Amino acid sequence: MTTALLLLLLAVGAYLVAVIEDWTTSGRFRLAAPAFAALALLGRESIVPRKSDRVFFETAPVLLLISALLAATVIPLTANLIITDLATGALFINAALVYVLVALLMAGWGPNGAYAMIGGWRFLGQLIAYAMLIVMPITAVVMRAESLLTTQIVVSQAGLWNIVYQPLGFILFFVASMALAFLPPFDLTTAKGELAGGVEAEYSGARLAVFRLGRLVLIITLAAAIVVFYLGGWQGPWLPPWAWSAIKILAVTTMMLLAGRYMPRIRETDLLGWCWMLGIPLALLNILLVGLLVLVLP
To answer: Which of 186, 170, 189 is nearest to 178 (CA)?
Structure first.
């Protein structure tokens, strides 16, 4: 029952993400726009490239969706509304999201097209840049909670949310999450202006619909992870816990979609340089500061 309810909420959340994304790009709030777009995709012919690697081509969209769903299974909306409260839940999120890279490399290689392949290799470059900025802030969050349980991480923020306790970790994790979801300005993977869609370029019809659904679920999953790690999860006054989770997740999602709209696209080589020369030292500094705070203020 809990699994079915959370999957339903995830589907509703993904639809709302599509509505918000359409609003941020077009400037018009159209509640029915994602439904019409989905129907249009499902009504089109799904074309297969002539010389494609059929296994990679067919598997990539499904794997992207599955990896986002797997990460969502250990993210709690309330103390009891969680599919699996794993003892290693915080690290499981990172492990599940690694398969986003595998899915995008398969989507780049499978169609045997130049644009798709360039998009896939660009995402690999982004992964090398942001990978440590996913793991190291999670390490600092776990240090304070003294547990890898995602529910315990939320409980540990009862007195003070982690966005205040470790703001540097929040900024790093937020930026890395945007790069993982290949949102602007980290959208070199799709880059419609120069790659005609990149990893999406050779997909059409139902396959493209699954691919885009996987990306929407990925965005909502990452927003939920940010809420759990840094914004106190379901905690808040007056409203029921599930309402606070929903409000925070939608607020973070809107921030993620708006943050990069007015910034120039960042090359993967520049992102790599900034993350390794600036991001990783800042992440180490964040771990040091959190460690000192844990010792001084147990």
So the answer is: 186
